[in-house]
Amino acid sequence: MSNVLTLQEYQAIAGSLTLPTMAFIDGKFRPAASGKTFASSNPATGEHLADIAACAKEDVDFAVAKAREAFDDGRWSKLHPNERKEVLIKLSKLVLRNRHELAVMESLDSGKPITDCENLDIDEFVHIMNWHAELVDKIYDQTAPVGSDAISMIVREPIGVVGAVLPWNFPLLMLVWKMAPALAAGCSMVIKPAAQTSLTALRIAELASEAGLPRGVLNIVTGGGAEVGEPLGLHMDVDMVTFTGSTATGRRFLRYSADSNMKKVVLELGGKNPCIVLDDAENIDYVAQQVCAAAFWNMGENCSAGSRLIVQAGIKEKLLERVKAHAREWKVGNPLDPQNALGAMIDKGHFSKVASFLDKGRLAGYDILVGGDTLEGTYIQPTIFDGVANTDELAREEIFGPILSVITVNSYEEALQVANDTEYGLAASVFTANGKKAIRAAQAIKAGTVTVNCFGEGDVTTPFGGYKQSGFGGRDNSIHAHDQYTELKTIWIDLSDSAVDGAID
Ligand SMILES: NC(=O)C1=CN([C@@H]2O[C@H](COP(=O)(O)OP(=O)(O)OC[C@H]3O[C@@H](n4cnc5c(N)ncnc54)[C@H](O)[C@@H]3O)[C@@H](O)[C@H]2O)C=CC1
Ligand code: BAL
């Protein structure tokens, strides 16, 4: 069932929103200790949205202290799993009750199209939250096969205080990817949303409190990367940091960890993902739709965007004809208008970066099959460049915009070689009617997720993360995500007759 309203209804909601502006620490909205704020604006219109607390190290220290206090006294970490589950499911219900408000807030803050905010971000938030909540009272610990003279229990304990540093491209979704498993496992959190997109994280924290999440368990500290992200990464009392964002910033978190308390670090980073279409692919119209979705969905502001189309020469002409037709269906414009599939780029700086790749493509003399221009404001046309070599800058850099580079290959083997010729390894898609080739390709491609005859990222049941410089230390989603917010402990109990208190009369 679609939950989408009309443009007029969304505009009315936008006009009546009360936007959160303060950090959320120890169960309360609070200004930054310095009293400073930063301006947050609507990327589609440039209009001022809110002045948000510009937090810094002392706010991070306060939030971590409160998260630690909450963790250590067990108000959440030691609750019966069933009680944690109930609070998180209540949060999901509150999200659904406030869905239109949250969807509009997300769209205004990020430039994302409202239909995606409604049908993807909100629905997935709820689904993922419920899945992890439901998991925690159904999983069991283990015992090891150590013989009859001992019992050896292998138990999982929540890891402690988790710092999460989030990107701006999927504010709600990245929040729940981190927050659902960490909270379900019993951790306390200090979360730093991207400065461009703080609003929905703050509102979720408020709803979580309404759902019964004890104070101090979920803290949202707003502000810049250097001011908030860095002190969180360097903090001596944070047990783990989970990060999604650029590879360059991810690298910093490894250094922060090494320079502080060797906290666990999980990184979900960039991608330059291949979409391989082999000569024997069938249902070309569907393949073309998927190629476009891979390249253009979320304005290409997506770590798993299929930004390299690696096509075998024999099918190229037929495929590109359909790809061009489908690319033109991706309407760009006002994110609040449900007619539009693409909204605005996140900010002027990022818009200029993506636009510079349009210039580079023109200068390089590639064939522009579709688009190639910016539109008034911070909009970029879905663009397809043909004739790109895999060694060219467009095929190597993560552009994070709706630009597809077409690379032609002559064989299956060449397709795989080109697909793997990248520093990244997040995701890949392969289109072929030959099952054996599909499986061999999926095995050969060095990427965390390989989809066959479709584009996608899996779902909450499947781990998401990268090989090579696309990821480090763990995965989002699935039971593996749950596990990474826990420590493994062995408890060995000696039952032998010589054990201290073990003799049986
Ligand atoms: N993998 C992904 O999902 C994402 C990839 N990117 C890529 O990164 C490029 C640059 O975008 P940015 O927003 O600058 O990404 P970024 O990786 O710098 O930002 C992500 C998060 O890290 C924080 N951060 C920034 N500098 C930090 C520092 N020194 N210490 C600690 N935290 C810090 C930011 O405030 C934000 O919360 C994009 O063009 C895109 O290619 C950006 C966002 C998400
Ligand atoms: N596509 C979900 C993860 C990301 O873009 O960062």
Automatic annotation (TrEMBL):
The gene from which this protein is expressed is puuC_2
CDD domains assigned to the protein according to its UniProt record, in alphabetical order = ALDH_GABALDH-PuuC (cd07112)
| Entry's EC annotation | 1.2.1.5
The source's domain of life comes to Bacteria
List residues of the Aldehyde dehydrogenase domain: 32-491
Return any one Pfam family short name. Answer: Aldedh
GO molecular function terms noted in the UniProt entry: aldehyde dehydrogenase [NAD(P)+] activity
**InterPro entries recorded for this chain?**
Ald_DH/histidinol_DH (IPR016161), Ald_DH_C (IPR016163), Ald_DH_CS_CYS (IPR016160), Ald_DH_CS_GLU (IPR029510), Ald_DH_N (IPR016162), Aldehyde_DH_dom (IPR015590)
Q: Which PANTHER family match?
A: ALDEHYDE DEHYDROGENASE-RELATED
Give the residues annotated as active site: 268
Name of the molecule in the record:
Aldehyde dehydrogenase PuuC
Q: Which SUPFAM superfamilies match?
A: ALDH-like
Similarity comment: family membership: Belongs to the aldehyde dehydrogenase family.
Q: Write the record's keywords in alphabetical order, separated by commas.
A: Oxidoreductase
